[in-house]
Amino acid sequence: MELIPELKDSKVFIKDIKKVKSVIEQLASDGKDKLQVITDFDRTFTRCYFNGETCPSSYGIIDDSILLPSSYRAKATALRNHYYSIEISDDISLDEKYQHMVDWWNQAHALLVEHHVMKHDIEEMVRQSKALLRDGCQKLCQVLHTHDIPLLVFSAGVGDVLEEVIKQQGCYYDNVHIVSNYMDFNNEGKLIGFKGDIIHVFNKNESVIHHSDYFDKIENRNNVILLGDSIGDLKMADGVENMNQCLKIGFLNDKVESKLEDYKNKFDIVLVNDETMDVANAIINKII
């Protein structure tokens, strides 16, 4: 811990310092060949704010695009305003929220199909957007690639969009595996639906990744650094067999006063209003 000055920053909150020290020491002792990194995308891999403005999510990149008509944006905004208030409500149970999220994603996907999104539009939508990866993401991805450490991006967003963001910002390597909601296009490149089961913010522990062979292929990598910005992200590593160590790093981007204690109880390290990957990079540097 003494050798990682980034953990002493005022933005860093750690409830159990002894535990974090022990986990990092074990990760370093086991080495890079036992390690994998699992991260959420929106507001975790990407910045939340830049120059005082909110950066768009992968769905937001589509919603904000001038390539779609204003009628689409009006309907998409209405859906978001209705369901997001349910997602963040403290008065609605998780079971109730679950079905609401399924309804939201289904309606959002149907709206995209209705407005004839084309495959060739995705690249331009991303290019015109204000989406930005966190400072230090390029360094993180390059180091993981150089040392052949798997990086799983596990997102409830739009896989085609976030993949394009990662590519355009120079972070897409062959060690990157993405699990998300991927679009399904016909032979003319027209959106006709989405592939597989819906991945939303509350089902990352039971969606397609845990029924695939991804974790089987890296079964010997039972040490995890997990990065997320919501409590639901804590489930992303549930598919790892024989888990040894899991260092959970949480980005707290808003409602700090009301959420901080809960985040400190559930994440090992909490980063408040931090738009960088400095802490993750510093820890990985000690492991490799």
From TrEMBL:
SUPFAM superfamilies: HAD-like. Keywords: Cytoplasm, Hydrolase, Magnesium, Metal-binding, Nucleotide metabolism, Nucleotide-binding. Coiled coil: none annotated. Its main location: cytoplasm. The keyword Magnesium applies. It catalyses: a ribonucleoside 5'-phosphate + H2O = a ribonucleoside + phosphate. It comes from the Eukaryota. Its EC number is 3.1.3.5. The keyword Hydrolase applies. It is found in: Cytoplasm. Belongs to the pyrimidine 5'-nucleotidase family. NCBIfam families: HAD-SF-IE. This is 5'-nucleotidase. The gene is LOC102805636.
